[in-house]
Design brief:
- There is one protein chain.
- With 556 residues, this protein is mostly helical.
- Helices cover 37% and strands 4% of the residues.
- The longest helix is centred in the first third of the chain and has 30 residues, at 152-181.
- The protein is globular and about 70 Å long.
- Residues 1-11, 13-19 and 21-36 have low confidence and may be disordered.
């Protein structure tokens, strides 16, 4: 089954069906595919569409995989912000870390690896997924498909749930694109070789948002209330992203409605009690939800809205690597510390939490406890190495600080001692949590002046804080800055922080204030500028759009 899914995934996402990728159209039209899984044969019944859906659901998992070089792809939305920086700079992270001349339209994370065509840049990865989603949406409307329902109503339900998954992923892609690049080309048709284009225009963000809303509302209607199945998404995901979209559009009342629909769904609740595989060991409820063996709904996780399955539990279509540990855990082996389960396995310290972000917790906060943060190691000779977390040690030496404190959310290793140094993790992971929705709801209420500790913004913030033994706040303490600080405390290394700060109009202000590398203070340079709220359109895309000039974002 895994090989079959991989084949379909490749078929859907091959460069020649990506609307903005350059390919040999004439050669594509001459293709004479022989495999029985070619689209004309695949999209004939419900099982074929299910296989395509599974392949499409693999795309978001790429965000936490090593798609370019030695770090999670989603790093581009986490470093160069108030909460994250590139502890070990790579060629594709240096510019975003320092906001210098290296941040330009030819950067590797935008254009892909020129030496490896399989490693596309983020722009084309997202458009390849959009192309695949469009194919599923288009093919689902063919009249002769056997939807394998028990009656006409069952056929309609199966069909629309497949379309709902595709439209949710399309909205998810456009969310990333428009929050990162601003106006981008809008593609809603299947690219079949006869309608390949090289004259794309950048569509205004308002129009992109309108498509996202339409897609998410459709997904909300047709996805199950609670699939309890990580290969079948639930409507709460669409509702969460609708709440975020409405906040972005300054529609707080609508955002409140959608966020409440998630918060009030009885199938999901915050983890407030210890549970699971390490119940008999020291720990805290907050961290239990990150332990492998506790991630899936079947394992007791009631907080996960969107789970990335990487284990073989319950026949979840095979194992996939992720690189969160590799990215965020320090390369402590350089300190003469042996890889072990105690230390979560091998890390490379490609990224780090900023010094400021380590200062915003109260001492008793579980999210700042030793259960959540790695503060020290013991070397093979028995010496204790105490980790750094102060501004003057952040990113020092320039090559990376292997002694930097790191989060334990991504600890994972094999049971076999011979594999403790395995490069990647194979743990199940929660991608979207209910706590995030609580904080969106708090923001929606705050923007309406509803800050009450009874059922207003303070109440929902306090639900998050008391779970981790942080002091509850009063109504008068609710501000946008406090909400953003609380998101940092709760969602460090999970949240695509750049997008949250972009959406709230605080990206430049907070990054320059709290990240002395990004501000240029450390290097005595200009650092982050106002125009850096958007990243450059890849030069590869601009060059391929030969029949219409595509202007890049201001400053690039």
């Amino acid at each position: 089954m895994k090989k079959y899914i991989h084949f379909i995934y490749l078929m859907l996402l091959l460069g020649c069906i990506a609307p903005l990728n350059s390919c040999d159209e004439e050669a594509f039209l001459k293709e004479n595919p022989k495999d029985d899984s070619f689209a004309e044969n695949l999209f004939t019944d419900y099982n074929g569409f299910l296989s395509a859906k599974y392949a499409l659901l693999n795309v978001p998992r790429q965000e936490r995989r090593e798609m370019i070089q030695s770090a999670e792809l989603g790093l581009i939305w986490k470093i160069g912000t108030d909460t994250g920086y590139a502890n070990t700079e790579l060629s594709w992270t240096r510019g975003l870390n320092r906001y210098n001349v290296d941040l330009n339209p030819t950067m590797q994370f935008l254009n892909g690896d020129v030496s490896n065509s399989a490693k596309q840049g983020i722009f084309l990865i997202l458009y390849s997924a959009i192309s695949a989603a469009n194919m599923i949406i288009h093919r689902a409307e063919e009249p002769e498909i056997n939807w394998m329902g028990t009656d006409a109503e069952g056929d309609e339900r199966n069909k629309n749930e497949i379309i709902a998954h595709a439209r949710l992923i399309r909205a998810w892609c456009y969310r990333h694109l428009s929050m990162t690049f601003g106006p981008v080309p809008l593609s809603t048709e299947e690219i079949d070789g006869t309608n390949y284009r090289d004259d794309w225009e950048r569509t205004p963000v308002a129009d992109i948002q309108a498509l996202m809303e339409s897609d998410l509302l459709f997904a909300e209607t047709w996805l199950p209330d609670n699939a309890n199945d990580v290969t079948r998404l639930s409507r709460v995901i669409a509702q969460h992203y609708l709440a975020e979209l409405y906040l972005w559009q300054n529609r707080p009342e609508d955002a409140e409605s959608k966020a409440r629909a998630v918060v009030d769904n009885p199938n999901f609740k915050l983890i407030t009690q210890r549970y699971g595989v390490q119940l008999s060991e020291p720990g805290c409820p907050y961290m239990d939800q990150f332990k492998n063996g506790n991630i899936l709904p079947s394992q007791g996780n009631s907080e996960g809205l969107w789970i990335f399955p990487n284990s073989e539990v319950d026949d979840l279509l095979g194992r996939y690597t992720n690189t969160m540990r590799r990215t965020w855990v320090s390369a402590y082996n350089a300190l003469n510390v042996a890889y072990s389960p105690e230390y979560g396995g091998r890390g490379l310290g490609r990224a780090g939490v900023t010094a400021w972000a380590f200062t915003i917790y109260e001492p008793q906060d579980d999210r700042y406890s030793n259960h959540a943060i790695r503060r020290k190691y013991v070397t093979t000779s028995g010496q204790t190495v105490v980790c750094d977390s102060t501004k003057d040690k952040m990113g020092q030496p320039i090559g990376g600080n292997n002694q930097w404190m790191s989060l334990r959310k991504w600890d994972w290793t094999f049971d076999n001692p011979e594999r403790y140094n395995e490069s990647y993790s194979y743990a199940d992971q929660t991608y979207l949590r209910l706590a995030d929705t609580y904080l969106l709801l708090a923001e929606a209420l705050f923007r309406q002046g509803k800050n009450s500790a009874a059922d207003g913004a303070a109440y929902y913030i306090n639900r998050i804080r008391t779970r981790s033994n942080a002091t509850p706040i009063a109504e008068a303490q609710v501000t946008l800055d406090f909400i953003l600080d609380e998101r940092a405390r709760e969602l460090l290394t999970e949240e695509c922080r750049r997008e949250t700060l972009y959406r709230t109009g605080t990206l430049v202000e907070r990054t320059r204030k709290y990240n002395h590398i990004a501000s240029g203070e450390r290097d005595g340079l200009e650092g982050m500028q106002d125009y850096h709220v958007l990243l450059p359109i890849p030069q590869k895309v601009i060059d391929a759009n030969v029949k219409r000039k595509m202007e890049n974002n201001y400053g690039y």
